[in-house]
Design brief:
elongated; mainly alpha; 61% helix; single chain
């Protein structure tokens, strides 16, 4: 496994995710979204949009945490070892999910 390539991919993913989170964290301009129809009150579309953004932001932050943990494991020399049980993570799993830090067995157990 080319750890330098993995590091570059993880760093690019981290930087991209940080930028997306920062964009979502910006306060929306009042009236930037427009509603339609008589029954939708002022701000309804903005509120729905913000709820969606919060969900996306939460997901992005979880991904960012995984990516930063994987980068830390590269620094520690433990990349590819499960955080829970310490056994090796399957190479195909790492290839598909470079930011994964638990083996499939521990992931199934919810550990």
């Amino acid at each position: 496994m080319d750890l330098d390539a993995v590091r570059k991919e993880l760093e690019a993913r981290r930087d991209n995710t940080r930028a997306r989170v920062a964009t979502l964290a910006k306060r929306p301009e009042r009236g930037a979204s427009q509603g339609f129809g008589k029954r939708i009150g002022d701000g309804t579309v903005e509120a729905i949009s913000r709820f969606n953004d919060i969900g996306v932001g939460t997901s992005l932050e979880a991904g960012l945490d995984r990516t930063e943990r994987a980068l830390a494991k590269l620094d520690e020399g433990t990349y590819g070892l499960c955080d829970t049980c310490g056994r090796p993570i399957a190479p195909k799993r790492l290839q598909a999910l470079p930011d994964v830090v638990v083996c499939i067995d521990c992931a199934k157990r919810g550990a």
